Amino acid sequence: MPLTILSPQVQEFILQNTNTDVSKLALQKNPFHDVEWTDILNQIAARQKAKDKLPTWFESSNIIYPSKVSVEQTSSEITAQYKASLVSGESLIDLTGGFGVDDYYFAKTVSKIAHCEMNEQLSQIVAHNISNMGVNNIQCYTGDSLDTLTELKQQWDWIYIDPSRRSDVKGKVFMLKDCLPNVPELLDTYFNYSSNILIKTAPLLDIAAGLSELHSVKEIYITALNNEVKELLWHIEKGFTGIPAIHAVNLSKDGEPEIFTTTVEDEPDVSYSLPQQYLYEPNSAIMKSGAFNDVAKQFNLYKLHRHTQLYTNHTLIDFPGRKFVINEIVPYGKTEMKKYATGQKMNITVRNFPISVEELRKKWKIKDGGDTYAFFTTDKDNNKLMLICSKA
Fold first, then answer.
1. Within 10 Å of residue 57's Cβ, how many Cβ atoms?
2. Which of 101, 207, 285, 331 sits between 20 and 30 A of 248, alpha carbons compared?
3. Nearest-angstrom CA–CA distance, 9 and 289
4. Contact 265, 249 (CB under 8 A)
5. pLDDT tens for each residue of 170-223
6. pTM metric for this prediction
7. How confident is the model over 335-372, as pLDDT tens digits?
8. CB-based contact 60:132 (threshold 8 Å)
9. CA-CA distance, 180 to 121, in Å (whole number)?
10. Cα 363 to chain centroid, rounded
């Protein structure tokens, strides 16, 4: 991308059109003869994506953005900031640098950062941006990261890797061996250069599958943002042979993160109960962990059913997820549904129930929204229920 994109006139045009529909803007004539129109449109589209996800970049002047897709795929600032809290020391090498959001935050906790990126243009963009943002402890390297790692011939406190799925791999099964770089294959090579490796993977990766491909896994962080799982972080420590800890972390723009810690050991025994006064629904990070029995044990709760990941008790507690007061316990049947649900306005959740939310709405003419929350579920005696609740 030519540096003419940084000319004051072009930058002013980009700023003025931040809220403009790019598809409509594309129909206009390019007002600049020395800059490609597609490059300008891409900057506007990418900047629009950065507004909420990357506010530091959005609020900085003279930033160059890669493609809109690259901005969509990069870490958000909130998740990057949390990631940086997991590392420390003098040096970190990022083998899959990308747009450099993670490295910007790593640079706040680690003295020296190496940003490795195969794409020469992207590497140049990151070098420009970090300099423009006043960051002076990140060095950008272009080319194959394994070559860079071997050529630098030094020990690092941390290696960070965000492997990307190879485009030639078809099907829905997500395995690390199908990504670039191939971490399972290169893991022992990486250990020649660092004792601590942090791997970021998509939430699609099954935890058991990841553990089957990797060794020396010390900790797994399931990172959610506003109750949507965004990434899995795998801390691998050279020589570690213990039981990995799993941290389910739910981040938000405001307030402290919700953190629930468990292990990959066998789940403990739990007690079951019919619905009591309060109902608890774990956040998405805990749901991804699969530690459903351990939730009941740690918070002294009862499960509604072996396959119903909802919990109950008689005393309101602090809980990493949603909390409700159960106002009505309604057996699921035609008469009861006509009385309590038909034509009502409710937020519906289905847990271990044979009918989908869409089917329930259509069948019983239930409107969406309001302050009432209806959970359709199965109790410990295998009875189908509707729990009518309000937020606790």
1. 23
2. 101
3. 50
4. no
5. 655 678 998 999 999 999 999 999 999 999 999 999 999 999 999 999 999 999
6. 0.92
7. 999 999 999 999 999 999 999 999 999 999 999 999 99
8. yes
9. 19
10. 35
